[in-house]
Amino acid sequence: xxxxxxxxxxxxxxxxxxxxxxxxxxxxxxxxxxxxxxxxxxxxxxxxxxxxxxxxxxxxxxxxxxxxxxxxxxxxxxxxxxxxxxxxxxxxxxxxxxxxxxxxxxxxxxxxxxxxxxxxxxxxxxxx
Length: 128
Hints:
Elements: H1 3-20, H2 23-27, E1 30-37, E2 42-43, H3 53-57, E3 60-70, E4 74-83, E5 90-100, E6 103-110, H4 117-123
Parallel strand pairs: 1-6
Antiparallel strand pairs: 1-2, 3-4, 4-5, 5-6
């Protein structure tokens, strides 16, 4: 297996597990010194950024992968997240990964948070 294919295998295993709600499998792809940053969450925990996953997946109806770019120690996925009609958001998302020794050490999730502001306000404080 080449380095690029190792990167692809790890990132896709994480991505697919996360959108299945399989936190243990997603977390198993994460290495030491992990950091996660998004418009709503900052975490240094391998599972802390996945804590609200059930709530998100409760409104997600599908994920369409648009692009996958892989290097030796980094990857970028671009995808659309589709939500239930009641939420009515299709979110274009970019996710950048850094890897070391075949494990994810950093994730930067990039999306326009404006459509989610009302939902986050209605949900109240999360303690994150």
